[in-house]
Write a structure and sequence with these properties.
Number of strands: 9
Radius of gyration: 27 Å
Structural class: alpha+beta
Strand order of the largest sheet: 5-4-1-2-3-6
Amino acid sequence: YVQGDDFNLAEGWEEWSGIIRYLVALAFVSVGLEFLLYPHLGTYALMKAYQHKATVVPGQVLSCEPKVLMYEVTLLYTTQAHKYEDNPRMRFRYPNAFEEKRFLRRLEAKHQAPRGTTIEVLVLPKNARSGLTREMVERMIASHSHFRTVLILVPGILLTLFIAWMAVSKAGNMENPQVAYIVLSVVCAVILSVGHVMAHGRFEREKQRRFFSANAQKIKQQGTKNEPLLVIEGIHV
């Protein structure tokens, strides 16, 4: 009786192992495709949102330091922000409690900008920390390559369809193809969903770090009337 169970288990594993191998291959290809394309397409869509939906506010350059092939610009901009933007409970309680706030941001720039220069800053609706310079937005849109997207997407889709077709063919030759088709469909849906959720979560974290990370500043005036001084967290301007 035990030997019979072992034989049935080995026979069942041999029958299902082919589909399992195809599912593993499908997981690697689909998740890899998501991780390659999601940041690329997501960033492009975000920059288009800046271009069409953002509010333009003036930003003042505080410093400009040369980097490798670029400049790092520190700028200050003022925009409407929720008084309790870091407190979800208070934001829900006081949805209209908006006030003017100043934000400090360090960004890469292609051209040097002297201290005191006024630069256009684009701020997305309901996200005061999202300030980016118009030059940066236009540069990132211009750097987007549709050819690169197609070069990754087309082979990836063809490979995914080929693996899926091989898995379906394998399921059709099994002892109980109906069950195999159901299992195959469910697992494929789970793989695609998990891959998309993982890629989306990774992009959202990167988006917060790269684009939505301006710091709110408490600014006070010091010095005489002839020598104004801005003090921003230890930065004297």
